[in-house]
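To the wet lab folks,

You asked to see what we're planning to order before we commit. Fair enough. Below is the target structure as tokens, and below that is the sequence we designed to fit it. If anything looks off to you, flag it before the synthesis order goes out.
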């Protein structure tokens, strides 16, 4: 048989227990919010680090490309068009057949430029001869001889 405490004259005050339970619920809820905020901050920090790493890698890649570009420019110094065409084809990853074709086309460009210079020298020599200026004609003939052209 169950005994009713109120019948016996006992009373239990539960207001303090209810207040403590509410405070405990509030603390638990606050701790949950703090945990979520910390998790969000950690996620933001991680993505920030990922962004930094990505930016660092991009900067390093750009520096490498720049240095390679300078090396290619250096490699081209003193080269004629035939040689530079073959080198450019090699830099672009083309096979040896394409490199040979590029060199052949470059050689044709070189020949065209030599012919252009020879035509200019011949015109200069003809003009000098027309005016009777022997030193100008000698200079033009010397230039044409350097190009390997017959001046006779």
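Sequence we intend to order:
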């Amino acid at each position: 048989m169950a005994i009713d405490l109120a019948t016996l004259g006992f009373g239990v005050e539960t207001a303090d227990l209810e207040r403590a339970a509410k405070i405990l619920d509030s603390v638990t809820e606050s701790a949950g919010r703090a945990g979520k905020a910390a998790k969000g901050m950690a996620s933001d920090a991680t993505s920030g680090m990922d962004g930094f790493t990505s930016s660092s890698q991009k900067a390093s890649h750009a520096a490498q490309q720049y240095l390679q570009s300078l090396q290619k420019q250096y490699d081209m110094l003193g080269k004629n068009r035939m040689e530079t065409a073959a080198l450019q084809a090699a830099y672009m990853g083309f096979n040896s057949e394409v490199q040979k074709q590029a060199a052949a086309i470059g050689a044709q460009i070189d020949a065209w430029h030599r012919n252009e210079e020879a035509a200019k020298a011949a015109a200069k020599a003809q003009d000098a001869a027309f005016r009777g200026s022997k030193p100008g004609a000698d200079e033009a003939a010397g230039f044409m001889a350097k190009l390997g052209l017959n001046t006779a």
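Structural context that might help your review: The CA atoms of residues 20 and 152 lie 118 Å apart. The helical segments are 5-8, 15-76, 81-91, 96-131, 134-146.

Thanks,
Computational group
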